[in-house]
Each structure stands twice: as C-alpha cells, then as structure tokens.
Amino acid sequence: MSDVIEKILFYMEYPFVRYALVAGILIALCSSLLGVTLVLKRFSFIGDGLSHVAFGAMAVATVFKLANDTLLIMPITVIAAVLLLRTGQNTKLKGDAAIAMLSVGALAIGYLVLNLFSTSANITGDVCSTLFGSTSILTLTVKEVWLCVIMSVVVIAFYCLFYNRIFAVTFDENFTKAIGKNVTVYNLMIAIITAVIIVLAMNLVGSLLISALIIFPALSAMRMIANFKGVVIASTIISVMCTLIGMIVSIVFSTPVGSTIVAADIVVFFLCCIIGRICGGNTA
C-alpha cells in the first residue's frame, strides 16, 4: 500500500498529471449536472450522437492540421446539437432515430476521412486513442486546461442561474409553457451546453465512452435518492469520485484512462443499487 501511495506522490510531481486531474474533475462535475436532466428527459443517448459528430470534426481538423482543433470541433458539435433538437421535434423523424443517424453517419465519415487523408503512420492508434481516450488526457497543454476551466465555469454558472427553469423543463414542459416560459429556448440551451461538455470530455474518456460519464452517475444517484436536488448533488459527488479514482488507478497501473473511469462508475452503480434496496431508497 505504501508503494502505491509513493508512486501516486511521485507522479503528482509532474505538471501534466496535475493538469489531467484538474481537467478530469471539472469535466466530471459538468457532466453530472446535466446528466440528471438528460436521463429524466429520456435523452441520454444525445451524448453518443454528439460525441460521434465531434469525432468527425476532429478527423477533419486532423486532416487540415489545425493547431487547435477545438476551435473547429466546438462550433460543429454545437450546430449538431441545435439541428438534433430541431430534428427531434419533427413528427416524421423522432429524436432517437435522428440520434442514431447522426451517430453512425458522423462516426463513419470521420473514420473514412482519416483513412483517405492520412497524416499519421499509426491511424489505428490515433483512432483508438480518440474513441477510448487512452492517453490524450495526459497530454493537455496549459491553454487546453484553461479552456476547460473557463468552459466549466460557464456550464456551472448556467446551471446555477437557470436551475429552476431546468427543473421545470425536465419534469413538465407543458406546465412551463403554461406559465409563459419559452421551453424551446431552455431546451436549446441545454443541448448547446451538452455539446460543450461532450467536446471537453473527448480528451477524458474518448468518443465512445462519453455517454457513460453522463448517464452512470445520474442513474447511481437515482438508486438511492428520490428528490431532484439530492440526485444532482449525489450524482456530482459520484462522478467526481469515480473520475478521480479511475484516473489515479490508470496512472498507477497504466490502464486506459477512459475505460478505467467507466469501470469505476459501473462498480459504484451496482453498490448504489445494493444500498438503495437495503435502505429502501428510490429503485425506479
């Protein structure tokens, strides 16, 4: 045990490890806040759709050798979120179908672009790193960390300022409309903020595992707690805790970062299910 602690303290001396932990905790915090709303609105898989769009945008940015690919990925993912929300309201094309089309289409195009216009000798390695977040979180620059901090502050400020509106839109859109509030605007804002979180989370868990970062903490909290505010707080604690544990385990034992974090989320989910049943919590 002492050897593990010494190893952790040794790695903490490196700036890139500290950057990774700061970015990881902030991303986990933001993901858990909106994750509860997305789960309750039955819109959990928006993470999959938008993450695959972000992967496609990343592929294009890589081909054009952009110095800061986030400048391209962020706007494209936000636009996709807006289109996804609009398309989901179309009676001829339901939300789940729109997400499926967007998810598969963007993933296929991104991989096709990377193969046709290869700029690296290790395409498979680059794709796997992007999809599963194996090492990218440990190569963050100071600018990327500051971008993560700024965007996280924006997300948290938005959630705190519009908490009552988010609560109303989550549970009863018709009532919210009845009291004169513009539901479409709030749904649009939630979609845009979700897109921002998706782009930030790509470096942490990769494109394929982002949904787990959004869904698992919320579902774990719901196993034990029945009120909205309690679920949000518990989800935030669980998300940050699992991310911190997952990243430390990954650094110490050289396991893939994204997969290790999700594995920690899965373990905590089952523990919460057991605790919820024993204590008679919310098991819905």
TrEMBL record:
| Key words of the record | Membrane, Transmembrane, Transmembrane helix, Transport
Q: Does the record's keyword annotation contain Transit peptide?
A: no
User: Mainly localized where?
Assistant: membrane
Read off the InterPro entries from this record.
ABC_BtuC-like, ABC_TroCD
- Give compartment(s): Cell membrane; Membrane
Q: Which residues cross the membrane?
A: 16-40, 45-64, 70-85, 97-117, 145-166, 186-219, 231-253, 259-279
**The organism sits in which domain of life?**
Bacteria
GO cellular component: a single term = ATP-binding cassette (ABC) transporter complex
Q: Which GO terms describe its biological process?
A: response to zinc ion; transmembrane transport
- Topology within the bilayer: Multi-pass membrane protein
Q: Which family does it belong to?
A: Belongs to the ABC-3 integral membrane protein family.
Q: What is this protein called?
A: Metal ABC transporter permease
**Biological source species:** Velocimicrobium porci
